[in-house]
Write a structure and sequence with these properties.
With about 160 residues, this protein is mainly β. The protein has one helix and eleven strands. It has one helix at about 25-30; strands at about 35-40, 50, 60-65, 65-70, 75-80, 85, 95-100, 105-115, 120, 125-135, 140-150. The strands form three sheets. A four-stranded antiparallel beta sheet has the order 1-8-3-6, with no helix packed on it.
Length: about 160
């Protein structure tokens, strides 16, 4: 059996683009955790301010290099190399976002559970997402269903029937 080991130096991470981050988990044969090495350029946000609804997915971030800020709930915290950040599922108090406020790249390892279905809320824009991931297809994509919407745009159960 091949060892499930990869050194971060051996990876070719790309700057974070919308919805695409190199996924390390499939390379390692991981089944229940997702792993990504993120390179966040100066002035960029890693993802929209969001939280994972109760009892679904949890995220952990390990800052490898650089510094920036972490928004958690109503507070903002300085982050730097060596920091380990836990983002458990929950309500508005667990909402989080990483921002590179420095003049240099911010590199971090993102680790998360991969439970499905997943419900995510984005309070800054009043959006929600429902994600049902059947399986990882490659290092950057999954097969399944994803819908992002605002609650006021939601149809009633019998609309159109």
């Amino acid at each position: 059996m091949k060892a499930s080991i990869v050194n971060l130096v051996a990876l070719d991470p790309q700057p974070l683009l919308a919805d695409v981050a190199p996924r390390i988990g499939p390379m390692l044969g991981a089944r229940k955790l997702g792993y990504s090495l993120i390179v966040l350029t100066p002035g960029k946000r890693a993802f929209p301010f969001h939280h994972h609804h109760h009892r679904v997915n949890e995220e952990m971030f390990f800052i490898v290099e650089g510094e920036g800020e972490m928004r958690i709930g109503h507070e903002t915290h300085a982050i730097r190399a060596g920091d380990v950040i836990a983002c458990p599922p929950g309500g508005i108090e667990t909402t989080h976002q990483i921002v590179n406020t420095s003049a240099h790249d911010l590199r971090y390892l993102a680790i998360s559970t991969q439970a499905s279905p997943e419900v995510v809320e984005y309070p800054d824009t009043e959006r929600h997402a429902v994600i049902v991931a059947d399986e990882a297809v490659s290092a950057t994509s999954v097969k399944g269903f994803r819908a992002v919407f605002r609650l006021e745009d939601s149809l009633g159960y019998w609309d159109g029937e």
